[in-house]
Design goal:
The chain is α/β, with parallel strands linked by helices and 264 residues long. Helices cover 45% and strands 15% of the residues. It is globular.
Length: 264
């Protein structure tokens, strides 16, 4: 299967590290012009340089902006120019006992994990539909379906993102633009390492800590290991391509079999 995204421009939010960085790198490797987004000029610049080192011919440029605000979202869109592929990857997570989650926590999680994606979709979808081609991809989580007790605010925000994705897919019906969610399972990133050590003994070496976390907190996983960010990126690159033209309104799983369901 040959995926060619030459001539397409992709904006990936929260792409200076973790899953977002792997997605940006994967899209650049498939020939897309990629706009790397984050709030820090240094980290965004470093990520742009690393992708350029791997793909010297790639068109990779920065968009330093806080897309959780209206002004920041507009700045990112202005820096990106004409966007063919929008990947709403930015998200926050963390463990908090359910009864200790404050109103401010709930609002922050929805502002970052839902409204940032909604704003950017609202800004970019009309031009995509006018051109008759586009991709909007929202990075969700297994927690949207299997709400974890230790972070119900995070899981609920990702459930809302699935619903928003389906709604925007209906808004783009028949236009040549597809809108999908990617349900990512437990994934190995720096942030997840910190999260794992919130729940297991910090004195354990990483390999042992990871196994203990999966055994105690994610026993449903059929993969029985954390997913690597590149494995999430592979699905995103496919869904961003013309090869996925008949997939829209979906919630596509890259969850290592974590969600116990025979449906996507």
């Amino acid at each position: 299967m040959h995926i060619d995204l030459s001539g397409k421009t992709a904006l990936v939010t929260g792409s200076s590290a973790g899953i977002g960085y792997s997605i940006a790198r994967g899209l650049a490797g498939a020939g897309a012009a990629v706009v790397v987004n984050g709030r820090s000029e240094n980290t965004v610049g470093d990520s742009v340089d690393r992708i350029r080192q791997d793909f010297p011919d790639a068109d990779v440029r920065p968009a330093v902006a806080d897309v959780t605000t209206e002004d920041g979202a507009r700045l990112a869109v202005e820096a990106a120019g004409e966007v063919d592929v929008l990947v709403n990857n930015l998200g926050i997570f963390g463990a908090t006992p359910p009864l200790e989650i404050t109103d401010a926590d709930w609002l922050r999680y929805f502002e970052v994990n839902v409204l940032a994606a909604v704003r950017l979709t609202r800004l970019l979808l009309p031009a995509m539909t006018d051109r008759g081609w586009g991709r909007v991809l929202n990075i969700a989580s297994d927690s949207a379906v299997v709400i974890p007790e230790e972070m119900i605010h995070y899981g609920t925000s990702k459930t809302a993102l699935l619903a928003a994705s389906r709604g925007f897919a209906k808004a783009a019906a028949g236009t040549g633009v597809t809108v999908n969610s990617v349900i990512a399972g437990p994934t190995h990133t720096g942030g997840v390492e910190d999260f794992v050590y919130q729940l297991v003994d910090r004195s354990l070496p990483w390999d042992q800590a990871q196994r203990e976390f999966m055994r105690a907190n994610r026993p449903q996983s059929l993969l029985q290991r954390l997913i690597e960010p590149e494995e999430i990126a592979n699905m995103v690159v496919y869904l961003a391509s013309p090869l996925a033209s008949a997939t829209t309104g979906g919630a596509v799983r890259v969850d290592g079999g974590y969600v116990d369901s025979i449906l996507p």
